[in-house]
Input
Amino acid sequence: MDVHSDLEPIRFLVGSWQGTGRGEYPTIEPFAYHEEIAFVPGPGKPFLAYTQRTRGEDQAPMHSEAGFVRMSTGGPELVIAQPTGLVEVHDGELTDTAVEFRSTAMGATATAKAVRAVVRRIVVAGDTLSYTLDMAYTGVPLTRHLTATLQRV
Amino acid sequence: MDVHSDLEPIRFLVGSWQGTGRGEYPTIEPFAYHEEIAFVPGPGKPFLAYTQRTRGEDQAPMHSEAGFVRMSTGGPELVIAQPTGLVEVHDGELTDTAVEFRSTAMGATATAKAVRAVVRRIVVAGDTLSYTLDMAYTGVPLTRHLTATLQRV
Output
């Protein structure tokens, strides 16, 4: 694969992943989901295209999102768009084969439910990718929302 | 295709499109590009997944972006993420088979070149999709940046 040399530090993300997760939040009932994630190198460019989708236990489509992990001189950066009308802008910090993205800006369309902040921690160990997502919402500080474990496929 | 009934007003966008465009801006040399665009309905959901990529006249990869067109009670909304580290949030206005998206919020990662505002006008006539993109940048007001014409494939 034509992977840009700047992507070497985040090469551990590259690939397709499948697994399961669970969601929780003070304002909702807990739920479980199936998930597919892909990180695909831009052809000869220093970024990974990121796509994700989840299905419920009954296989009905749930969430999806798309974005890019971009390698800058300061480390990885992440931008995401969601069909819920949200966008996220993150700065990332790398530690071996783990990366923590902390939102530096959030955006929402007129009718979207605005989210105040998001922290996404991704850890890859061999062929296992696990992540957590913490979210701050109106009246709720940063609180665990998602926990998932996926296998490389 | 399982297209959500709320998508009826923007069904004219759905499909895969290929064509060519030209870029210009006060700060750069004009350029030409090949382009592929897709608008794919979310399965049973009131949004379209949007992907786009361009290549130069020499076929070398240039730009790409990904996002979602979401139908709300107020009309279409658009969110986009770009590997340049930018995100865009738009409100849209529909007129027959045309839509004008005007940015309501822009976001950028720490090392991205921030864009102040974007207006994207898309017109579909039969199997032809044409668009313009105006952009406001540091020191430059809203100015034409992109003009393209694509055919349904």
